[in-house]
Amino acid sequence: MVKASNAIPFMLAVSALWGSSYVFTKGLTNALPPFAAFFLSNLCGALFFTILFARRLRGFPWRRLGALVTLNAFCVLNALLNVVGLRYTTSTNASFLVQFSVLLIPLFTAVARRERPRSHVFPCAMLALVGTAVLLLDFGQVSVNPGDVLILVVAASFSVYVVLLSVKGQGLRLVDILAVYYAMCVPIGGVLYFCLERGRMALPAVGDMPWLPLLGSATVILFAQVLQVAVSRFLRTETIALLCCVEPIITAGLAYFLLAERFRTQTWAGGLIVLASLVLANVFDRRADRLALSAAGDSEKLEIPS
Fold this sequence. Notes:
75% helix
C-alpha cells in the first residue's frame, strides 16, 4: 500500500490523523475524567487492533518481552500524560507543544549514540523554547497552565521513545510493539480509574457514552501509529519532521468547528515561532547533508600517485 512514490501523501495523512487525535481526545476528556478516558479509549483501540492484526500475533517473541515492556513504558507514559494534560489545556496548544519533540529527538539521539549534535540544533532549540514560553505563560497573571507543562513532558517522553525505538528496537515487529502497548495501557488505565476516579464519578450509561470522541480517538491513534512506521521506511527524518508541521493547523481547524475553541493571538504567535524553529532546523539539516555528500564525492575523486 505505502510505496516510495506515495510516501509523502501518506505522511500528510498521518499528520492529519495525529492532528485530529488531539481534538477527539480533548472532546473525550471534556465528557469523562482523564483516567476513564484513557482506559476506555485504549480498550476500544485494543479491540480494533485484535480484530485487524490477530493473525499476525502468532510467533510472539517472548524472549524480547523485557525490551518491549521497557520500550513501551515511555509510550504508555506519553499517552497517559497526553490525556491528563488535555483535560486542562486546549487541543491547539497541545499540538503546537508536541512539535518540540522534533528538536529533542536529534539531541537525545546524539546522547544515546555518544555523538556530537549538529551545531544548528542548539540555536533552533533555543528559538523553539522562546515559542514554547509564549505558549506556556499567561503574561496577564504571570502563571503557567499545568496542562501545557504536562504536554511538554509528553514531547520529551515521546522523544525518548523514538530514540529507544531507533537504537534498541531493531528487529522488533510493529504488531508486537502495539500488542504490548495495549496490554500495558488497558490494565493501567483500569486500575487508575477504579482506584482514583470511580468513587467521584461513575461511567455514563451506554446511551450517554460519548461515542464519537471515544471511537474517534481509538481509531485515529491506532492507524496513525501503523501508517507512520510504514511511511518512515521511505522518507528521511527531516522530511517527516517538516510534514508534521501540518498537525497543529489541522488540529486548530477541527478544534474550531468541533470544540468551538477560539484562537488566541498568544497561541498562534508562540506556535509559529515553534514551527519556524522546525523549518530552520530542516533547512540546516539539508544543507549539512549536501555539504557532507559533496565532501565525500570530492574525496573519491582524489587519486594517490603510485
